């Protein structure tokens, strides 16, 4: 009978570590594969010094696995990982871990649609669009979640005016925070203020997975995900692990931003994620004193790009002081009734009308 992963893990859980616990309980086994009579895995120590001291443990692990009936050889490698920052969860849940196996792309239970808000370049207003769109959708009666997946630079707590930390009373699930009618979760709500996230790709992917699956999102019509800028691990994980309804790409009309937006669109095409449309942010600036209209970042670039790509232009949002002030105050401009709020209401209605939100 072929040996199972569980049998290998059971053997490894009997290998005691010098400073207490065992390899499995201390979550140090990575990339375990069982192929016929061969087993491979990595023992990941917290740092290089501890890895060196664990050589006898590695040898014992290899011997224990090779002693299992049906196993001819075990290849066991020791590696070191830099220390992960300590998240500061309330209730003992730690955010940031390696991703766990998943059968295929699936959405967390109760979430009907997932909309990713993406940009090629940083600073074009992606987080501003995500928070305002979430609020505009909620104002139109949708049950909306907002997941801040910009793990290195979470800005949703500030933009949504949330200072309360997320709690995990049972140490297993996280209670999200509700702000302006939107259920929200951000890694910023789990970390101490001023604490930096210094994780490698796998830890990021694990943290994103936790924020999708361990948060009590409740039933949602749509989960809006504020992605980090660019085309990295978080984008890849989200596209591969969930059934995304689609992505909305935000850009300014400036050439350099458009160039990067094109790369983001290309990434989504490669990952077979539909691009639902482009949003031109900081489109025009109307001087509040004289009414003169200026195109600070250029004009029409995003519309032309959308046409070229064959995707809809969902809207053009003005560059306006009230948008920036509202974001800084934690009361997204879409909560009000000025021209920017109207523009967001229009985009939200369009997404709802198209069955996308
Ligand atoms: N239409 C707008 N009018 C005025 N200010 C804006 C507008 N859109 C965004 N801003 C401001 O520009 C700054 C950057 O916006 P935001 O953080 O949303 O960009 P981002 O693309 O998410 O950036 P990052 O990629 O760094 O997270 C913020 O201070 C925000 O308030």
Automatic annotation (TrEMBL):
Any Pfam family matching the protein: FeS_assembly_P
Binding site for ATP: 120-127
Gene Ontology biological-process annotations: iron-sulfur cluster assembly
Keywords on record: ATP-binding, Hydrolase, Iron, Iron-sulfur, Metal-binding, Nucleotide-binding
Record-linked InterPro entries: FSCA_dom_sf, MIP18-like, Mrp-like_CS, Mrp/NBP35_ATP-bd, NUBPL-like, P-loop_NTPase, YlxH/NBP35
Molecular function terms, GO-annotated: 4 iron, 4 sulfur cluster binding; ATP binding; ATP hydrolysis activity; ATP-dependent FeS chaperone activity; metal ion binding
UniProt cross-references to CDD domains, sorted A to Z: Mrp_NBP35 (cd02037)
Function text: Binds and transfers iron-sulfur (Fe-S) clusters to target apoproteins. Can hydrolyze ATP.
Family: Belongs to the Mrp/NBP35 ATP-binding proteins family. In the N-terminal section; belongs to the MIP18 family.
Protein name as it appears in the record: Iron-sulfur cluster carrier protein
Organism: Rhodovulum euryhalinum
Lineage, highest ranks first: Bacteria, Pseudomonadati, Pseudomonadota, Alphaproteobacteria, Rhodobacterales
